[in-house]
Design brief:
It is an enzyme of class 6 (ligase). This protein has 197 residues and is of the alpha/beta class. The chain is built from five helices and twelve strands. Helix 2 packs parallel to helix 3.
Length: 197
């Protein structure tokens, strides 16, 4: 039997730490994310901002989306397509209709306009300070960030509990780096640790 892939081990360990992060109040973290995230958006001034629809013990992005939408920022959520494809994004703001998509994740209505976000708040399992991340294993965000970066300048902001930080994430050429990571302890500018090519 083959040993588990190093990324799979790191993913499992980081998610276990996230589940055990009882010292962090999830409501307070969601409020911090709304405040710090909207400040970052105000600084970078992207046209369209996407976030993810939170599941299980992921940090909630709903207060962030509410804050951004209330300030007039166009917001979007991802649509998960077939495995091996990038995500599609549709405009959505709190109060708009949602439908159940792949894996039971809530998504905007198919009637909502398709967009290409300029700043993405990205879920993750583990991260390091150079902006490398481990997702949930399907590669959706790596393909999505690569496709968007081939078209224009974007910003990718990982959202995680500080306990999900790992000293060094193994990475390959196709792995896409994050520009920033936002945790309950603050904002990490990954670009200043290791410049982007």
């Amino acid at each position: 039997m083959q040993p588990p892939h190093p990324k799979a081990v790191l993913r499992s360990e980081a998610l276990a730490r996230r589940r055990a992060s009882r010292s962090v109040d999830p409501v307070a973290f969601a409020e911090h994310l709304a405040s710090a995230g909207s400040s970052l958006v105000a600084e970078l001034r992207p046209g369209i901002v996407s976030a993810y629809f939170s599941l299980r013990d992921e940090a909630s992005t709903m207060p962030l989306l509410e804050t951004l939408a209330a300030s007039g920022v166009l917001t979007a959520l991802p649509i998960t397509g077939p495995r091996g494809t990038p995500l599609v994004f549709r405009l959505w703001r709190p109060g708009d209709a949602l439908v159940e998509g792949k894996m039971g994740i809530s998504e905007p209505s198919p009637a909502a306009a398709e967009v290409a976000p300029d700043l993405l708040f990205v879920p993750l399992a583990a991260f390091d300070r150079t902006g490398h991340r481990i997702g949930y294993g399907a590669g959706y965000y790596d393909r999505t960030l690569a496709a968007l970066r081939a078209r224009k300048k974007i910003f990718a902001v990982g959202v995680a509990y500080a306990s999900q930080e790992t000293q060094k994430i193994p990475h390959e050429d196709h792995d896409q780096r994050l520009d920033f990571v936002l945790t309950e302890e603050g904002l990490i500018d990954c670009r200043s640790v290791l410049p982007f090519p």
